[in-house]
Amino acid sequence: GRVVAFEPHAATIATLLENVSLNGLGERIDVLSCALYGSTGYLPFLYRSLTAGSGLSQVGATRDPFGHDAEPVSRELKAVAAADDLIASGTIPPAHVVKIDVDGNESDVLAGMRGLLTGASRPRSVQVEVNPEGGRELLEWMAEIGYRETGRHRTLCIQKSVNEGADPASLGANVIFQPASYAR
């Protein structure tokens, strides 16, 4: 298989490139240091932390996936691209499997790949981090474009919160979708 990885975080991109190299996968993994989004251009990327591997940095938002506002520690004007535009230009091939975890911008990323998701060569599996903020709308949108939920899993941290009595609906989950017409 072939992987196309998108990473907008400046410190994390260096770690990703190092891992690809150390594992000898440079011929199988294309790394793009931009953010997938609903449109193509340049937007502010707001860093929650400058540490590699840290989370919750986002394109154009200071609100985290749980509805809390936070001040960014830094900001950068970042290239953003819609997956449909990258596919149309021949920059990347259409994906068979998609994983999206963008700390709150999932709906924007999905909007930028609507053509892929609804086209003749639609992905056979799409995993999306679904968060409390906007999660219901995202699930409804995926159903409207012909995808059904086929699985759901939580990170260890979130599962621990559920085990301690937290309401699962108030926490995020990784949701796996397949086209409603997909036969395994």
Sum this structure up briefly.
The chain is α/β, with parallel strands linked by helices. The protein is built from six helices and ten strands; from the N terminus they run E-H-E-E-E-E-E-H-E-H-H-E-H-E-H-E.
Could you explain how this protein is built, in words?
- The chain has six helices and ten strands, in the order βαβββββαβααβαβαβ.
- The longest helix is centred in the first third of the chain and has 13 residues, at 10-22.
- It has helices at 10-22, 83-88, 106-111, 114-118, 135-144, 156-163; strands spanning 3-6, 29-32, 35-36, 41-47, 58-59, 74-81, 97-100, 125-130, 147-153, 173-179.
- The chain has a four-stranded mixed sheet. Strands 7-8-10-9 form a four-stranded mixed sheet, with helices on one face. It has a two-stranded parallel sheet with strand order 1-2.
- The two termini are 19 Å apart.
- By secondary structure, it is α/β, with parallel strands linked by helices.
- Helix 1 (10-22) links the parallel strand 1 (3-6) and strand 2.
